[in-house]
Structure formats: C-alpha cells, structure tokens
C-alpha cells in the first residue's frame, strides 16, 4: 500500500498585508511542497493529485481563512448622542487569497533529481499577524467517490509574519529553488 508524505521544502517567511483592495502582496518566498511516496511498487500517476492551502493561527489551533470585511461594519458617529443598533450583519471575506490549490508538477530539484512538487506563487493574507499554512493533499479521483477518502496527507508550514506597510522589511531576491522551477516552466514570479 502506498503512503504519501508532504514536506514544505521552501517555507514562507513574510509578506506585507494585502488589505481589502485589489493589490495583493504574495508570501515571500512562495511556499513549495514535495511529495514523497513510500512503498510505491511502480511510478504513481500524480496528475490527479492536488494540494489545498488553508490559513491557521501560528499555534495551529484556529482556522483563520475568514475575516470580517471592515467596510461591512457600520461606522458610529463620534458626536451622536443617539444609540442605534445596526441590524446589518458583518460580511466575511477570505483572509487567505490567491490560488489556494496547486496541481502536481514533475520537476527537477537543485540536485537534478526528479520529484513531485506543489507550488503556491501567489498566496496573500489580508490581515497582519503570525500564521501558518495547512496543506492538504487530495486525490481528485477518490474525492468523487468519498470526500474523506480523497485526503491522503497534510502538513503545516513554519510560522510566518504578515506586516503592515509601515513595518514591512521588504522582499528578498528569489531563492535558487524558485528560479530553478521558473526555468522549468512553472508560472512563478522571480526577482533579482
């Protein structure tokens, strides 16, 4: 029986918060995961394997995928002497935005060894704080039959920090792994 193991081989470190506008600031460096297959008697077709990302608190106790959109909360006038209760419910928005699902890629690593990888080049977070990403490996063929049977493995990233614009220390140059995967055709932004 084949067992699956996910490993984050490139950890996200930081990003500037994206807020609720259209401009997004992706995690730096982009998270990259490697899939290891144990007890596989032959090559496994990974074309139907995907990894989904969720945002969690740094201590992995709370899901942080949703946040209240501040534009949906009524503003109370500071000088008003009349107390008014709003019947309008706050609107929730995704806190983790971007491409939350990665297909599998057959790629060569920096040692020219072939492997199965999952790349998340454009994940952004709307609020500041410390977070981790939970990655869940699923088999799309099994999901059609039974949702829980489709989940093969999961792992967490190390904690990373989302900064306000004022506190953000900036982005680094692209990592060697990012550049190497971009040269192999993965749509992943690079910086010099």
What does it look like?
- It is a single chain.
- By secondary structure, the protein is mainly β.
- It has a single domain (3-70, 88-183), classed as Velvet domain (Immunoglobulin-like, Sandwich), CATH 2.60.40.
- Helix content is 7%, strand content 37%.
- It contains 2 helices and 14 strands, in the order E-E-E-E-E-E-E-E-E-E-E-E-H-E-E-H.
- The chain has helices at 140-145, 176-183; strands at residues 3-10, 14-16, 32-38, 49-57, 66-68, 92-94, 96-97, 101-103, 105-108, 114-119, 124-125, 129-139, 151-156, 160-163.
- The strands form 4 sheets. Strands 2, 4, 8, 12, 13 and 14 form a 6-stranded mixed beta sheet that branches.
- The termini are far apart.
- The mean pLDDT is 88.
What is the topology?
Blueprint: E1 3-10, E2 14-16, E3 32-38, E4 49-57, E5 66-68, E6 92-94, E7 96-97, E8 101-103, E9 105-108, E10 114-119, E11 124-125, E12 129-139, H1 140-145, E13 151-156, E14 160-163, H2 176-183
Parallel strand pairs: 2-14
Antiparallel strand pairs: 1-3, 3-10, 4-8, 4-12, 5-6, 7-11, 9-10, 12-13, 12-14
What is the name of the CATH superfamily? Velvet domain
Question: What sequence of helices (H) and strands (E) makes up the elements?
Answer: EEEEEEEEEEEEHEEH
Assign the structural class, choosing from mainly alpha, mainly beta, alpha/beta, alpha+beta, or little secondary structure. mainly beta
How helical, in percent, are the residues? under 10%
Rough outline: globular
**Low-pLDDT segments, ≥5 res:** none
For the biggest sheet, the summary is: 6 strands, mixed
Q: What is the β-strand count?
A: 14
The CATH class turns out to be: Mainly Beta
Beta-strand content bin: 35-45%
User: How many separate helices?
Assistant: 2
How many whole angstroms does the radius of gyration measure? Answer: 20 Å
Mean pLDDT: 88
First-to-last CA distance: 44 Å
- What number of structural domains do the residues give? 1
Query: Might you state the CATH topology name?
Result: Immunoglobulin-like
CATH architecture: Sandwich
